Amino acid sequence: MQGIFHEKTVQRTVFLLIACCMLPILLYLSPFALTENDADESAEELTASAQMTLSSTQKLSDITDNKISTKITISEPTELAIFSDKGVAGVYLIWDQPPGKWQILAGDRTIECGLYDFVHEYIEIGDEYRSITLHLPEGAVLCDIRLFGKGILPDDIQVWQPPYEKADMLLLPTHADDEHLFFGGTMPYYGGELGYRVQVVYLTNHSLPSSLYWHDTRRIHELLNGLWTVGIVAYPVISDFPDLQSLASDYRNPQELAKALAQAKNQYNFDEWVEFQVENIRRFKPYVILGHDVNGEYGHGAHMLNTESLMKALTISADPEQYPESAEKYGVWDVPKTYLHLWHENTVSMNWDIPLENFGGKTAFQMAEVGYKCHISQHIYNLAVGRSGVSDCRAFGLYRSTVGADVTGGDFFENIDFSEYETEPVTDEVTTSSPDDTNEMPSSTTSKESRNTTKTVIVTDRIFDAEIMIAYIFAIVFVLALVGIAIYAILIRR
Ligand SMILES: [Zn+2]
User: Fold this and answer.
1) Cα-to-centroid distance, 178 and ligand 1 (Å)
2) Closest by CA position to 354, among listed 367, 369, 364
């Protein structure tokens, strides 16, 4: 009798000890604990709960419905007063076009905004304010506004940095969507995954006020959404050249191609295109440039003109006598490597099928498809990110090199000795600085820092997801173990 009692006491004591040891571990790792942390770190969206008042008679609902198609035109200086019980720490605005300078009043601070001509603009206010006032500039067109508390912003909130001071790679699409269709996995792989400074420069502008058919205000939003999706963080450069049509009736017919190019040369001033290319080469001093197919892929005259002006620019960008204004402003630059899409010499076929950690295991090819999906207005055309013919987004050729031919192939940066260039005095600081009281959004980080920051942020998110998953598994195992011990203890007592 005494022996049994003693045995039971020992069993109970052991059970209690195990339970006591496991409880804190269980609580620490439980999904409830993580959910709590998660809530602390995610920024709460306050758009719906905040009270907003416009000083004009325009419809507030047009800018709070999360639709770019409904918008208000600011015909006179207008105030948007915002009050929120939960403090506002950041404001996200979708403009129809660059709004010019405008201000936010928060407490006794005036935050200068619109400094970078961003069309998708996130303003980090810093502290949380229950009451702020936006002074919207005359002439601006505002599509949407969203408000956030402190914490990690949702993925679709685009916090752009200004264009790089110095880029590793310059990507030269002609139109919004070419960057995904014809340069394929370049941006997600080199920009989003490896963290290279990939600067995109568009040769045409879809937003220019114009009566032309190809003017389309939707496309700037699709362009930015697409770039952001594939991991680009530096705001693109977009020319002032309008989007004009010059398409060959048959892209396999050389005469038709020549006609399309001639048409583009009539529509645009070739010399202005060369000047634009030279200026951007000197401004960004890239190690690698990626340009279009000389035959304009599907025979687009503007694609062809883009490449022809690039070819010319490459031969003169190192000559200070040519376009001396940009030479004086930025210095000169001889681009080490230039690849053209579908170029027939020194060909490389890029492997865009490697799973990318920063995109949850999706490949660069898949991310190019995801990026192209953002170009909704273009889906009426029969185009897709492809692997064959003129749509093969893996096929490039080394058109020009100052560092020799590729030996291994498959890497645009082969033979680039970064240390050789990095020793040169490169000013990486962003020049567009803002006074103390201005917004802190596009931080004037060095390009190298931003290269790493992007990667770190995305990786952190991924690790956090993995932590939650592991915690769930641990929690389930511990609960099962506790239940087992309890049942065992009850059975022993009987
Ligand atoms: Zn195009």
Assistant:
1) 5
2) 364
